[in-house]
Fold these 2 entries.
Entry 1:
Amino acid sequence: MKARIHIYLKPGVLDPQGHAVASSLNHLGFEEVSAARQGKLIELDLNTADPGEAQTRVKAMCDKLLANPVIENYDIELSA
Amino acid sequence: MKARIHIYLKPGVLDPQGHAVASSLNHLGFEEVSAARQGKLIELDLNTADPGEAQTRVKAMCDKLLANPVIENYDIELSA
Amino acid sequence: MKTAVIVFPGSNCDRDAAVAIERVTGAAPAMVWHEETSLPDGLDFIMLPGGFSYGDYLRCGAIAARSPVLPDVIRAAEAGVPVLGVCNGFQVLIETGLLPGALMRNAGLRFVCEKAPLTIETANTRFTRAYGDTSAITIPVAHHDGNYFADDETLNALEAEGRIAFRYAANPNGSARDIAGITNAGGNVLGMMPHPERAVDALHGGTDGLAVFESVLGGAQ
Amino acid sequence: MTEITPRYAEGIDEQVALEHVTADEYETILTVLGRAPNIVELGIFSVMWSEHCSYKSSRVHLAKFPTTGPRVVYGPGENAGVVDIGDGQVCIFKMESHNHPSFIEPYQGAATGVGGILRDVFTMGARPVALMNALRFGAPDHPKTRQLVAGVVAGIGGYGNCVGVPTVGGETNFDAGYNNNILVNAMAVGLAERDKVFTAAAKESGYPVLYVGAKTGRDGIHGATMASAEFGEGAEEKRPTVQVGDPFTEKKLIEACLELMSEDAISAIQDMGAAGLTSSSVEMASSGGKGIELDLDHVPQREEAMSAYEMMLSESQERMLVIVKPGREDVAERIFKKWDLDVAVIGKTTETGRLVLKHKGATVCDLPLDPIGDKAPKYERPYFPAEARASIDPASLKTPAHLGETLLTLMRSPDMASKAWIFSQYDRHVMADTVASSEDPSDAAIVRVHGANKALAITADVTPRYCTADPYEGGKQAIAEAWRNLTATGAEPMAVTDCLNFGNPERPEIMGQFVGCVEGMAEACRALDFPVVSGNVSLYNETDGQAIPPTPAVGAVGLIEDASVRAGFGCMSEGDVLLLIGETRGELGASLYLRFIENSEDGAPPHVDLGVERRNGDFVRAQIRSGLARTSHDLSDGGLACAVAEMALASNCGAKLAYEDGAPLHAWLFGEDQARYLIAADAETADAIRKAAQEAGVPASVIGLAGGEAITVNGAHALDLLTLRQAHERWLPDLMGEDMQAAAE
Ligand SMILES: Nc1ncnc2c1ncn2[C@@H]1O[C@H](COP(=O)(O)OP(=O)(O)O)[C@@H](O)[C@H]1O
Ligand SMILES: [Mg+2]
């Protein structure tokens, strides 16, 4: 199955990229953008059948490597 | 409303980051990972009420700035 | 003096680090490949060099921090062996948790290479004592992700405990409180974004970085 | 027309054929083969007979360059030029263009350009020690320019910084002539042991052929051919993709190759450049007079179901082809596995003189190699020279009221303004041997030979304004300025590499520019004993019939025997005498002054007297090497006044210029007469140098004194350094702003 992981910065952590994205968009005339945050999108192909197992394993991957707990949160979407 | 934009490399475009993530996960004992792809996640806060308008505007933002049409695809999720 | 430089795939200041160390100790350091699972015995000093370990993919230093040799480096650090991480080496130390905080993308988003004026915040660390009462030096920086971040509590603690070794005189990357280099609580681990090994030679970048090595390696032999 | 039936192999029709080669070329192929080529063979011909690989339009003229000299070990023909720097060491260097890819995808285009030129250098056994880049962008206010600048610079930095080779210098121009065709030329310089230089020629048959590096994907397969029979129904994942570089893999590839080179295992080695597998295998075999047989099933592949055609035309990056000595495969395997790189035996060299390709058990290609080279098209394209322009009489232009203002205008102009915004994104200090780079007041970058006390001086120069006005004089001037920039540091100029960027050679006026520039360069190289050892040609840089200005970029390398004995232009101090070496007639044709003050591109460019150039340069170098002259600067864009301004900014010391007579004041200040240098020294030293000049018959005149916080002319026209510095340093950052960066990567 596949896992799609969203990794974004915790509230309060400064986000230079997001900030630059917002101001560039404003600069280009997209004034409706009041804020932007930039994060990571990671897609994994897994040789795992059982969703429950996949969930725990992918969570472990995030905690061990994919996300930095000091500054990042994440969420996991599984799909067949 | 909010827009969540997923930006990922077009199929066939070399993705060294994804490759590095996959092999590092394998090294850490997550052998079930057969492939990984890394993309960008961008969240926007919009002062826009109308979803239809938001959709067209955000698409324009992607084409103008956020995504690189030569190597990247994107999809847009809107939420209130 | 037994010294070692850890070499990751993508390290590119490993040779520079070795040259700087040898200049002070007169002996070449052991170059330890990332896949080694144990360090040479009886090391007096370990250096994590600059570069782009594992391509800087995912997060700078993240993959290197989980490479086979690191557990032994962490053990040595916890046992009190002096460990210096420069640039990418600093990022690795942060990812291992040996040093607090995070190093984010530069505020200007651009890679910054310049000769950075620094202030020496304290001369009583194992890495700065040879500076004596020198308070201002210039050392080259070259990085894309050197924007130091930590919560106020951590920052206050670093300040209170005198663990900020260097600050930028002209902040090039948006680092919180102009932080350029910090030590761990034990004082035996220093992480810094500027490259002291690029400032140990009058013909190249001056000699303002030499004292970092002299401090920790016991001065010119 | 050759009587061969069928004229087209299965799945090929006339249109497909013409998407690969011209009608004449197709006829030649039929005669050579005595049969119709299949799609794989057609693809191979299209690559080998492309302008890029065959130099079909330029070959006859490139032969005019002098390519030999006492220091030259290998000239053009190898992957890069090789010159002897003594002590058993050689310097290996080359310059290459990545113009079109950089316009399509600035970041990846520029990045892969750097990767490609690095491979040309380390494939010969050199550790790369320096990178340079010569960039030409469109008008600053053109809607595309800022994004292209941001992307190209980020790409060059992103790749060079990661591989850990310092980017030490370059040049940048902005000109509307490049609006739709920017130029991205990258140069790499490396060092090797003289007896450890590797070449590409397959000398033995029966030797194993190894593929090493990154896997092969569908990167950059030529667009036109993709629409062809074979991929008509091309699904999304079958479409060609832009080459994406991976500097991390390149860094590992450098270390792995150098490690393998230190073992006695390699017979021949070649990087995979454009259409990697095709050009590398064909060139290795034919240059050695051998044949080669590959089994494509063994090629490491990144994607599913790749066809033989795709594998042979793929431009995936970070790949090399290595012919190893029999029985040494394991050594290569061990090393490349250690570096986590792909390594596979994909074939062997043969005696047949043919290129044979197997795929899925079938023979998909069987071509005789000689004709691919011998029968390669070679055009004597018609050309007519640009008609000569009248020179500008400086007296016909009125002297501006406030020359300090004039100087300010030039120093903040796109060509003269500080490029710090660019080079501060390049790691210039990694490897810890950079003695002088972009930020330092030196006319050439200086990189110490690791572990030694000598150094290389490196520069990149060309003045497209001059080449437009008079290709021949412009060609001479490009070589002369490079030679002068090296000389001004005290270096002995050794050799030249080039990157000849022009428009469509099928247009006689463009071909005229090309021939003029080449012949001018060749004459200058001969006169200055400055051989061309490598280079690259980039044609068809034009859009809708709008060609770029002729831009023969020159890269050059010199040798400084003692790195501590050299000159820069940053130590002018209060009271120093300013000594001008060379003559000033006040040449304003095609000058910056004319462009930015008179809004004219008119006039003949400054004449280059190569005899005088050499005499004056040899004199200045001697003064530097004797230790007398420590502060010297070459005069180029913007003439005397701009050179003084650059020295003043770098030294943080003003200057009082004293004009007596000769050319009209504005021409004296801004004329771009060639073969000139400015030396600053204390009165006594300056006097000694002046006497030496008299004896050597070299014109030398005192033109002012250093001192104060402003630049003045006869006590008037004051321009204070603060104002000057602000204007000079702010122009590019202000142009770029902060809003572009989000899109740069
Ligand atoms: N694209 C670039 N990359 C790196 N350095 C550059 C670039 N463009 C200009 N520079 C640097 O800016 C300085 C001024 O460039 P230039 O005016 O061309 O020097 P010169 O006139 O001596 O050839 C030089 O140090 C040069 O190396
Ligand atoms: Mg120049």
Entry 2:
Amino acid sequence: MSNVVPAPKLTRKDFESDQDVRWCPGCGDYSILANVQRVMPELGVPREKLVFVSGIGCSSRFPYYMNTYGFHTIHGRAPAVAMGIKAANPDLTVWLVTGDGDGLSIGGNHLMHCLRRNVDLNILLFNNRIYGLTKGQYSPTSEFGKITKSSPTGSVDFPVDPSTFAIGCSASFVARSIDVDATHLTEMLRRTAAHKGASFLEIYQNCNVFNDGAFDAFREKVHRDDRTIRVQHGKPLLFGKDNTRGLRIDSRTLSLEAVTLGENGVTEQEILLHDETNPTLAYMLARMPFPDFPVALGVLYAVDKPTYDGTLTAQRDASLKKNGQGDLHALLHSGNTWQVS
Amino acid sequence: MSNVVPAPKLTRKDFESDQDVRWCPGCGDYSILANVQRVMPELGVPREKLVFVSGIGCSSRFPYYMNTYGFHTIHGRAPAVAMGIKAANPDLTVWLVTGDGDGLSIGGNHLMHCLRRNVDLNILLFNNRIYGLTKGQYSPTSEFGKITKSSPTGSVDFPVDPSTFAIGCSASFVARSIDVDATHLTEMLRRTAAHKGASFLEIYQNCNVFNDGAFDAFREKVHRDDRTIRVQHGKPLLFGKDNTRGLRIDSRTLSLEAVTLGENGVTEQEILLHDETNPTLAYMLARMPFPDFPVALGVLYAVDKPTYDGTLTAQRDASLKKNGQGDLHALLHSGNTWQVS
Amino acid sequence: MANPEPQSTPLPHAAKEVSGAVVRFVGDSGDGMQVTGSQFTVAAALAGNDLATFPDFPAEIRAPAGTTYGVSGFQINFASRDVFTPGDSPDVLVAMNPAALTTNIRDLKRGGLVIVNSGAFTATNLKKAGYEKNPLEDGSLDGFNVFAIDISKSTLAAVEHTGLSKKDAERCKNFWTLGLMFWIYDRDLASTIKWVEAKFGKRQELVDANVAALKAGHAYGETAEISHFHYKVPPAAVAPGTYRNIGGNTALAWGFVAAAQLAERPLVLGAYPITPASDVLHELSRFKHFGVTTIQAEDEIAAICLALGASYAGSIGLTTSSGPGIALKGEAIGLAVSTELPLVIVNIQRGGPSTGLPTKTEQADLFQAVYGRNGEAPVCVLAASTPGDCFYMAIEAVRLAVKYMTPVMLLTDGYLANGAEPWRIPDIADLPKIDVTFRTDPEGFHPYLRDETTLARNWAIPGTPELMHRIGGIEKSFKSGHISYDPENHELMCQTRAEKVARIADDIPELQIEVGEDSGKLLVLGWGSTYGAIREAVQRARERGLSVSHAHLKYINPFPKNLGEVLARFERVLIPEMNLGQLVKIIRSQYLVPAESYPKIQGQPFKIDEVEERIRLVMES
Amino acid sequence: MANPEPQSTPLPHAAKEVSGAVVRFVGDSGDGMQVTGSQFTVAAALAGNDLATFPDFPAEIRAPAGTTYGVSGFQINFASRDVFTPGDSPDVLVAMNPAALTTNIRDLKRGGLVIVNSGAFTATNLKKAGYEKNPLEDGSLDGFNVFAIDISKSTLAAVEHTGLSKKDAERCKNFWTLGLMFWIYDRDLASTIKWVEAKFGKRQELVDANVAALKAGHAYGETAEISHFHYKVPPAAVAPGTYRNIGGNTALAWGFVAAAQLAERPLVLGAYPITPASDVLHELSRFKHFGVTTIQAEDEIAAICLALGASYAGSIGLTTSSGPGIALKGEAIGLAVSTELPLVIVNIQRGGPSTGLPTKTEQADLFQAVYGRNGEAPVCVLAASTPGDCFYMAIEAVRLAVKYMTPVMLLTDGYLANGAEPWRIPDIADLPKIDVTFRTDPEGFHPYLRDETTLARNWAIPGTPELMHRIGGIEKSFKSGHISYDPENHELMCQTRAEKVARIADDIPELQIEVGEDSGKLLVLGWGSTYGAIREAVQRARERGLSVSHAHLKYINPFPKNLGEVLARFERVLIPEMNLGQLVKIIRSQYLVPAESYPKIQGQPFKIDEVEERIRLVMES
Ligand SMILES: Cc1ncc(C[n+]2csc(CCOP(=O)(O)OP(=O)(O)O)c2C)c(N)n1
Ligand SMILES: Cc1ncc(C[n+]2csc(CCOP(=O)(O)OP(=O)(O)O)c2C)c(N)n1
Ligand code: SF4
Ligand code: SF4
Ligand SMILES: [Mg+2]
Ligand SMILES: [Mg+2]
């Protein structure tokens, strides 16, 4: 141990690849990339042990810009490829980058199965509520009635909420953040990295070309305090300027209420404490209707659960222990054999 | 109107096709088939307006046995085919029969999208927690650690709960029943038929060849009262022999408690009333851990919401009203044209 | 075509008559080159020229300004004679910045005219384009006629009076450029002015500015030394009728609208966006009042399945995609084959394999179309040969699908999809009706009863009293339509499905020789979008006295009945394709003729020169 | 083979020596015919016979008892000479109920021996089987040697002492039957008794009952008039060694285990259950201690993608499926082609199109294997020819995949999967190591650097310091591995990928003539599971003096280098295939020889007779 030369500390620059970044100027993807590159050195994982896997979409170009291993796969299939990588080498740290189309339209099934299996992956879903790369069709997260090239009279699909979906799939870690808030985003990236198992981080990302301003109603500085709530484990669910508003449970109707402290005698006592381990609360927070409620950002849900790759490894080890290293000769000669001489 | 000859009343027999039913003797599918055939005449839909669509699996053989229109499609794709049928002819009543493998493994994505879009379909998912037709591999609903041909040392996948999944997909109707309970099953089939939109009915179904007894712990007569709860809108969530047990909310921990009336001073007052329209309650009921809690059967969730096919039709009508019947000549001559003579 | 002529010095202002020209507009994605090209096209069309156009988009949505990968281009070939391709090498290159110049100059004809916006040749832009020195100054453009004009500055001056911000004002520079090009080719400004007025309607300052820029550019032509370059391209002798310019994807979409009307059935499109097919979805989604329902599905598998469901329910089911998406549809195409339902699958091919070159053209999905399924799963395969032909092939695909109760795969490609040509608008009354008869008679009914001639099974749709039946992907009895595992029955059904598709040959036109004699030394056989290049190349080779003919396949499975005979009448057969030789293999396997392959797989269409050169080589060998 | 001989009356008890026989056991799904057949097989193998077997399962899991669609069968061909197929028509048919009789009697040789359980010929069962009269009584079996024995009753009597319930007791009737068959073919009971003991281990009463039934059946042979039918099949002259009986799917699974050991890399299987491929997943999932990881994926797309991910990470990625599942993998195979990663895809073909005949065999996915992808996406295609050959072809697939960094598609089919044959167990030391070298040197590294000979790119796996790089499905630069939209580069890359697969031809054995001369009148060329039938048919035709030879393709893309020459040395070429003629088209397109197709697509393998007859017809025409 004493002989190990400490690796030189890496910096953000070390995580930049030699390729020109080719997103549209102003795209929210830039900020996410910068924050990921910023957080990477902190995590202490050597670059060669990092793999970024993605599907197809603007967001899925991400791996090209990271100076790590990268696999830009095919549309929707990144979770499956990532799972194969982890099954082959659980030692690698695998990040998966996907979009709302890639991850929830064509790839929804793989995402679901990867979440329920709790494969140890860090999943970043860039939700811009649009198909960017194919130039602006509505996506499964676009609002009902959205007018796009493929829905000139308004889309007829009700959207799916990525975090609610993840909770429905029994994900063990569900969090939400937003491209423009570097502090929050880096914090969420750290939590995502730290969680063992399938960590699902939805990131609201502005596509300034095809869906500009999709999140302005709560992303703009003026609205941020009032229209988002940053949930923190064990802390009261307060929001608004000076934390004057909060969430309370109406236990008759089993639903959340957004209340103002001091109004109608509401006290901080009544405000719910956030509990990351409570699936019901996570479910309610994820799907609060906007703008009646603020948008919940932060770690909505996080519990420990055995990982798929961990169980695979354990089974492999147990089998080795029980049977010893496989003996091909013995296998071929097992059962009935006969000799011809 | 007065000239219309009333159609002769149909009976169960009228819904039996001329094909031999080819499930294993003793399979739970028989009972479901019988109950569907029993309910059909009540619904008053002429047989020619009924279409049964399925994927591949034992359960998916269902359409062959119904004397209606039927389409036995390919593995996992029934929701998409069904959606096409409804888009082409919203006048048809379409039932979709799928299995836990067909609907949740290969077909999970189509199911999700069909639920969130709220396509007007009646979806029956036969959950036997196993792949029947391919002779007994574990399915996405099989319990963790299940030993099957493909998992000799136990499966490494955490299961997905179909109803919880449906709720996560923002389904507008989610119900659960069980093959052996004809009364409950027929009631649920009626409710499923009555709901406009994507009605999702999960039916626990015993595969007596490859997963016999999967539901015995709560299906057996002796356990039924204690280990299942039949939820009914507006009624208290009581269960157990003589309804002596019930579900109460612990609003500190935002979770359900199974309590006994009279014990520790628990009164019926404290027992939750079931509210089909409350998604949070539906979510909690769907995923109650067994055997600490009873298994919830009944309509867990039901709300009205525009249907996909309804909105499509409305848009078609609006477009006709606005633009008049499309004029091909005018279309071809639209924009810049020039004359050569 | 021999223009511009750098050495000659015609009188300024006197427009010299030429037979045609190829012009390419290139600039940054934000420079509005597509609009410029389209407006130039309209003017040429209105002037009666025959023409063909091709835009070339960057793969990136909006690459950073000034980069080479952000260059957007538009090429037009217009002439007083028939035009079949957008042209090989431009006579005129309009380059709005250094990146556009560096990526396109190598294509320009020697001695061609280059118009550059010198205002964009800043140090930063030069660096982004990878220039070490300014090409306008280092002599590297010697041999071309270079006009370096500070178009940015001229535009700003021209629109100053409108009070636009500098940024908005500079945006008008494409109209300045267009004005200059209009002067060079002696075009009327009227149609563009009308378009600007319609486009910017309420924003009068934008109308004023763009019109001012247009006129300023035009005026510039009169005054500068560029006034030597002043041409007139007389109208082409084309068949009388009403014409419009049409792109392949639009023609395709309209063809399906027409087909649905001709069949008097609703059309249901299931599609998932993918380049270069998305525009068909976009276009068709505007036609609800034509009985067209478009569904943006969650993926390509759902898209085809719902189209099939719609067919089953009595609509015309259609699904459109490109290579990777078509790959995903293979299993469901098999279901359509087995259930014998009409279904049209369009593959707008792009560069492969895998994601490949999504914005580039290719013809390498032919094998996939003909062979790419499990089991014996024959489908009818058609290919459109020009943008306008997409309209007719869409109708043909629907006709054959419903008549033979079979999936039909229609192939086009990125080049057809994005390319455009003037198109004589057909008279609706001339389009033949498509007969659709649903089975309603319960007498003796079973779902796999067949028409004796076509072998099509009867189409009995849900909602029809007394015809309730079940279908699916398991083998069915020839006699009852019920599931059957009988060995002989399976063979009979496989043969019947094959024979049914084979019989389509009786119902399609025989193969015609497009150019040249009915027999001879060399037949150049093409399919799909190579039509124009092959046709012109063969024409030119013939003008040089070579015994060569051109025939073009629009029906690939089955082939036209006389294909074997046609092949036999030529000593040699050459097949140019944008792949490594796929049609050639199918032809060889079927007719055992030693057809030769001329493959090109560069994401770019054939040039006429390339085909002509290959013909020459083959004839010499 | 000429046995039983109905007219001869040999002395009872004296076993007549015959060269071999074909026996078919048929009964209800619940009658245990598979066990009976397997035990009979083991005994034949231990007696030194060469043999081949084929089970025939019903499509339904457990059809209602007594129905025709619930009939389960097992056929064995065993002999004192080489055996290559499970035999055409049985000499002996053992039918446990009327449904089994009615569905199988037409296959029996004229004069063959029929043993039926008359106890099962109840009115209900007769009706279920569709008999109006009892065939044991109405003379319809005249011309066969029929022994109607109430096996049910005899079994009950034999096991009465064990105190089993009637239901359990009757279940032993297959062992009674087996005992009788052991007597007829003079087999030793020991191996079966050992098996019964191992199987029922702790439940002594079941051991006792089954052994008692077995012995009773055996004893019955001695006493009844059936004792005329008493044969001895001497051992075959086979190469010395240790043998075992092996089925195709087991051999395949073990081959992959062996390949992983030879390559010293872990194996990762991604699979989704599908008939008839599921057993490979089942088998491989037992081998965790061999470094084998199996993942039951959510669908076939995930299955191949995770196998590809595993390959990327340095394991041997494998995915197994059948037709419809392979159709779904097309897009991902393209990604494997583009990223040039080693990947083995196994297609255990079944009847198509679509769901088709899932439990039946077919070879109709050849086109899909060779051509079924978008773009120019060449993959290496191999085919195993016998159950035991599956072992070696699995190793070969892995060898070529890792050596050439390419996806390899290995084709087998339902017939190979479920069929079995005696197999000489290879010495592990004789199996050649598979060399896998990962790139570790950062000097001059880029991911698409190639080996000059194989053109394989270097395999640089995550975890390797300093080699961080990005790959994907977009076209890459030949020179740097970065994304490239360059036209010439795309062509170069397409050609390189094609050339790489073509070069595999330098690394595989030349095509050998299996039977017959190196040249002559007719070459019968086969591929895959038709090996045995073709081989025997050619042998027989040669015995009748015809100039015919047999060659068999195990490498289909690329073909062996000498294939063209071999074809040229014969006047005619006949290609029997279980499809409508797929290999024949590929051969014709490549070599322009007028190869003739002999298609059979009935879900059933070729019979030797059928091939022999066709050879005769061709030779006469
Ligand atoms: C099989 C397949 N289908 C369709 C496409 C076309 N396609 C590329 S990206 C994309 C959607 C991208 O949307 P999203 O995942 O939200 O990513 P974004 O571009 O918005 O970041 C589609 C439909 C494809 N590449 N492959
Ligand atoms: C594309 C494809 N993959 C796999 C299969 C094989 N297969 C048929 S049914 C089935 C699973 C059936 O399970 P489930 O849906 O639970 O139905 P059950 O038989 O249990 O009713 C599978 C894997 C198939 N037919 N098609
Ligand atoms: S299209 Fe939208 S998401 Fe894509 S790069 Fe541009 S701004 Fe970003
Ligand atoms: S295998 Fe199971 S699910 Fe399928 S028919 Fe038999 S009992 Fe029913
Ligand atoms: Mg998006
Ligand atoms: Mg199941």
